[in-house]
Amino acid sequence: MPQEHLDDINRAHMSSIPERQIRCPQCKKDTIYSLDNPFRPFCSERCRLIDLGEWADESFRVPTEDTENPQNQHPSQDEEE
Ligand SMILES: [Zn+2]
User: Fold this and answer.
1) Which residues have CB atoms below 5 A from the ion given as ligand 1?
2) How many A from CA of 8 to the centre of ligand 1?
3) What is the per-residue pLDDT across 28-72, written as a single tens digit (0 to 9) for each?
4) Residue 27 has pLDDT above 60, yes or no
5) Considering 1, 22, 49, 81, which has the largest number of Cβ atoms within 10 A of its Cβ?
6) Three-state SS across the chain?
7) Is 24 a domain residue?
8) 24: CA distance to ligand 1 center in Å?
9) How confident is the model at residue 14 (pLDDT cuts 50, 70, 90)?
10) What is the value of pTM for the model shown?
11) Ligand 1 centroid, distance to 69 Cα (angstroms)
12) Å from CA of 44 to ligand 1 middle
């Protein structure tokens, strides 16, 4: 009977991610957090990539002494020729 079928749909719906409105962490734009949004919690792929880029950039920004003696970093290319 259709009754049981409806019950199954209800159960499946309960176990899925509930749709809710969130704010994109990147551009602060209102967006929907749901299975339909593959870029959640972001509003778009662009925002997702931007966030990943910033994260990577952050990890690379470790304290170094490169700026102290930039000339030391120069490889002696003259020896190559
Ligand atoms: Zn966004």
Assistant:
1) 24, 26-27, 29, 43, 47
2) 35
3) 999 999 999 999 999 999 999 988 886 565 555 556 656 655 566
4) yes
5) 22
6) CHHHHHHHHHHHHHHCCCCEEEECCCCCCEEEECCCCCCCCCCCHHHHHHHHHHHHHHHHCCCCCCCCCHHHHCCCHHHHC
7) yes
8) 5
9) low
10) 0.47
11) 40
12) 6
